[in-house]
C-alpha cells in the first residue's frame, strides 16, 4: 500500500503543479521510478506467465509433462481453466503459491515458472521498496507549507483509493474479463463446466 501511496502522492503533485511530498520528504523521480518498477514487476510476472501457460502446448499438457500425468493441466479449457492459471500465478507472486483444486500444477512447466514467479514477484517488489526506503531515509525533512498536500485527510484517501482502482483496473481487468468475469456470466446463463 505504501508503494501505491507514493504513486498517489505523485499524481496529486502533478495535479496541483507542485513537487510531491510524503511524510515530510520530497518525492522525486527516483522514488516514483522505483514504485512503478515494483508495481510492474509483479503485474508483468503474473500476466506473462498466465499468457504463456494459456497458449503454449507444453504448458497445457502433453509432451513436456512427467509420464503418468494427465494430458491436460486444467480440468477445464474454457474460462474456469484460465481462472485456475491466473490464480496460480497471482498466488505465487503474492504469497504462498496455492492453486485451485482443478489445476495440475505439479508439472515441470508449472514448478519452474511458479518458482520464477515467486522469486520475481517478491524480490522485484522488495528491492525497489528498500531503495525507496533508503532514499527517503537520506532526505531531510521539508517544512509544511501552503503547497503541501495533507496525507491524513479524506482527499488523500479518495486519491489513494482511486489510484489503486485505476492502476488495478488498467493492469488486471483484461485478464479478469477473460476468466472470472466470463465464468460468472456463464454461471448466470446456466452453463456450468
Molecular structure report:
The chain is built from seven helices and two strands. With 193 residues, the protein is mainly α. It has one domain (2-188). The protein has a two-stranded antiparallel ribbon. Helix 1 packs across helix 6 and helix 2 (29-55) packs antiparallel against helix 5 (108-138).
Descriptors:
193 residues; mainly alpha; 66% helix; elongated
User: Could you give the distance between the termini?
Assistant: 37 Å
The percentage of residues in β strands lies in under 5%
Task: Quickly count the helices.
Answer: 7
Q: Give the topology string: H per helix, E per strand.
A: HEEHHHHHH
DSSP E strands, number = 2
Main sheet properties: 2 strands, antiparallel
**Low-confidence sequence ranges:** 62-71
The secondary-structure class comes to mainly alpha
Structural domain count: 1
Average pLDDT number: 83
User: What spatial form do the alpha-carbon principal axes imply?
Assistant: elongated
The radius of gyration computed from the alpha-carbon positions, rounded to a whole number of angstroms, is 21 Å
Q: Major sheet: order of its strands?
A: 1-2
Helix coverage percent of residues?
A: 55-70%
Note the topology.
Blueprint: H1 2-16, E1 21-22, E2 25-26, H2 29-55, H3 57-60, H4 79-94, H5 108-138, H6 154-178, H7 180-188
Antiparallel strand pairs: 1-2
Helix pairs in contact: 1-2, 1-6, 2-4, 2-5, 4-5
